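To assess whether ligand presence alters the predicted conformation, the chain was also submitted together with cobalt (II) ion. Input:
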Amino acid sequence: MSDGFFKDVAQPISFGGLDSNDPLTYKVYEPDRLVLGKRMEEHLRIAVCMWHSFASPGEDMFGSGTFDRPWLGDGLDPIAAGRAKLDAAFEFVAKLGVPYFCFHDRDIAPEGRTFAETKARLEAMVDYAGEHMARTGVKLLWGTANLFGHPRYAAGAATNPDPEVFAYAAAQVKLVLEATQRLGGENYVLWGGREGYDTLLNTDLAREETQLARFLSLVAEHKHRIGFKGTLLIEPKPHEPTKHQYDHDAAIVHGFLVRHGLAGEFRLNIEANHATLSGHSFHHEIAYAVANDILGSIDANRGDYQNGWDTDQFPNSVDELALAMYEILRGGGLTTGGFNFDAKLRRQSLDRSDLFHGHIGGIDTLARALLAAAAIIEEGALERLRGERYAGWAGELGTSITSGRATLDELERKVATGAIDPKPVSGRQELLENVVNRQIWASGSRAGAGAAKIG
Ligand code: XUL
Ligand code: CO
């Protein structure tokens, strides 16, 4: 095992608090701190991703890699390089002091010349990852198959016009689902990387939807056949790399799952930057998933409001994350899911130590957002005001409508006699925004802003 890729960093990163000016300490994240009766670490269930942080040399479409990543060096034997990459990744995750990692098959094992060689390489690397997991105690949040990188998937995997590509993708998912099970993975993710179209001129929408549904049914059937206990997750994204992706956003994926009888089999992996690309807020996507009981896990990152692409930056806005966190807590919190940092350093952040700064900042932002959301829940003002807004629906009129008893005739009679005469009431948006901000600003202190009466 090659060790010492991060020699300058003590193990693990400790809590320094807001008074610490050491960049290699957490300012807010304290794994053992109790928040609403649960440890911070158990609320957040943080994961590091293999792809952006360890498999990417920092290239973009205009230039080659810039990052100092000795395990990705040119001319290395692919197996030795793959092992060194895992050595670096597990050293990093253990030093960061977070419980999970996530991977695609291709992040840890390069494709071979034949399927058999690909499979053998993957199995060897999965065994090696398993050894690191046993040694460090780091766990697998989720695994996934890369069904978008190889040229065979240029026209999609499950939605490819060629059934042989469908079959190849199915074989690949089978291997990765089984590898995820072997490593004790708590979820399995399907991101429809190229399931969509570049032009409708060559696309049969109805056929491709049927193919995608069949593919997902096969995955769910196999999960039950092998007894995989984890959750199957779909990750919505509206476009990029294709012009239009079928897994566009939470509501569209939900409709698709319901149409094909798959709603009980899959939950969602909601990514912040994908939410904003789809024209929604991250808050909206989480709220939709919670309202429909399909929230599974989170890919934590942020976009750039001036760019229309997936910049995958580390999250740094407590204001935005506090609202998403509030919905997660209202929904009972994450179960098998977690917060996976699907976030990448900027191309000029060359140093290996920049990986620590990106993750530490993101983790502290999540921790601070958690404290703010918990304070909002404890204060209870939002829930109370929301409850008051809908109070009429618990009364005689409201229940007669929702139970189906009231008819249009009856309602018309009541309105005509003047028994029903609604008066507009304030939605109090600005007041509610102030309630949220007060807790965000106060949650840096241990006590928060306390419970206040808001009328
Ligand atoms: C791509 C993306 C993926 C998935 C896993 O935008 O988010 O990395 O999270 O395939
Ligand atoms: Co993602």
